[in-house]
Amino acid sequence: MAGLDRNFTDELRARLSVVDVVGRVVPLTKKGQNYWGCCPFHNEKTPSFSVNEEKGFYHCFGCGEHGDIISFTMKHGNMDFRAAITELANMAGVKMPDYKPRDPNVVKREEELFDICERAAQTYSEKLFTPDAAHALEYVRKRGFSDDMIKKYRIGYAPKNNIIANKFANSKHLIASGLCRRGDYGMYDFFRDKLMFPIFNANGKIVAFSGRSLDGSEPKYINTTDTDIFHKRKTVFGLNFARDAIHRANRSIIVEGQIDAIKMQCGGFGETVAPLGTALTEDHIALLCKSNRNIIFCFDGDAAGQKAAARACGIVIPFVRDTSDVRFAFVSGGKDPDEILKTSGADAMKKIIDDAVGLTDFLWELANKNFVVSTPGGRAQAEKFLDTQLEKISDAELKKQYKQEYDKRKFQSWHSWKKTKVAPNIKLPDIDAITKNTLVYIVNTFPELAEQYLDFLGTLGVDFDGDAAALNLDKNAAEKYIVSLKLQRYLEKLNLQKREYTNALLAGDENARDEITKIDEEIAKYNEKLEILISI
Q1: Where along the chain do its domains lie?
Q2: Quick one: pLDDT band at residue 101, thresholds 50, 70, 90?
């Protein structure tokens, strides 16, 4: 049977987490670095089925079943390879390619491209320590790179001449590598007079380069164009070095550029990576989530950094699970992580990371900053924004919890009332502790009721920001409690007014008699309503 292009199956494995695929049919609980559940392939009561998200495999210690997302989908769904791939492609939102055997010529072409990139990196590394590259070596050392760092990250120098075009003149794949282009007078090097940073794939193979200008020209960085072995939107800079650190730190840190990523890795934050001069993509996040779903975005605090963070927030939300910890940190004062490490040290950088804002708060801040929530129209826009973002969450229960959290915040922050809103000269009894606890529970649990009875609740002078013990109240019972309290409070108010008019009558004010009659009629009417409510 014809096989499927291996690149496509690799893309599915990169896009889909084995935890998500298995978790659709097997309840999983995270313990340590793995997820555990009862094996779907044999009967058991004690979970022995282990899923490792980073490695992309599952293993049952009871029956020995082992595999990846493809084998799991085939076995659990009792389907063949093609049907399993089709189902996974639908999950990943990618189009199925035609089934065909992998062309040996394509495989050979890729191997030659890897070889060209590897030998080019060796050439650039050697050139960095020649007299022609003195200015490049001086620059990289001024930026705080030691010889060990230069060696580890294989930093090099592309000279002003066409060294690559001349060295690989006989290679028919040289242009395809992105290192050279063809001009009117033959081939010429794409990178010239640049500080060179090799770009590695997740397996540690050099697939492309990023060149940094040394003469102040813009753009500061240029990257190899996309090739058969390199795609910017699917490549995370520094991931090959950061894998083990991400596992140990139980998180990844995303910064804006490769120098920041390298300096962070060498400065005690080995779990740091960066996109490649392009905006962050879903593919970048999917790749990182295979290692860990705890992510800290660390951007500059300027307008561009804030905009990048807002975009990252929208991209990461579909990948959030109830075990995720996504945060946003900002480096202020016009600095970047490299400068912070250089001038203030790792402790200062650690504080910035530790003070990162959680996803819940960051998304709330975006809604409040981007819309005028002091107006009905602005609040409507902000609510639509929050709803649109939350719809991206695939976990129904997690989505529900986020909505409840924001409903509570909307009630507490977007709607104001006067806590002393009572009738003149009439002081009602204070709310007792039990009533207060019940009201706080209702407001926090059923924010829609809080919105509905906002005017009444605002007269009670209760601080709804606190916590309350859980009560056995459903929504109907909660609403009944509020209406009952509202009736009681009104009756208390009527009785206080009756006493005032009674005192006035005793003092000789005959007009007070008519007012007392009206109040008695009102009291009788509302006592009847209260009795009906209690009997329901």
Answers
A1: 6-92, 104-230, 234-365, 433-535
A2: low
